Amino acid sequence: MANGHGHGHTPAAWTGVIIAFIGFCVASAFIVMAKPVGFWAGIVIIFLGAIVGGIMRLMGLGAEPRGAKAPAKAQAQG
Q1: Which of 6, 49, 61, 63 is the right S-S partner for 19, CB 3.0 to 4.6 Å?
Q2: How far is CA 17 from each of CA 8, 37, 38, 69, rounded to the nearest angstrom?
Q3: Is the pTM of this model over 0.70?
């Protein structure tokens, strides 16, 4: 991490948050229009954002957990 702190500056975090934000917007719009089906569709989109972000993290596009050791190759070079 170049910035020294882990605030989710990764493709996995950004993708998950953007999808969840879209879900919040959908749910909010449909709750104002009093359409429960659209509201629940927005909630599903929010959870989809969490799932997509988690899958991307598992694919290596997220931040390493705190305390994770660097690979041996990186330690040998540094």
Answers
A1: 49
A2: 10, 22, 20, 27
A3: yes
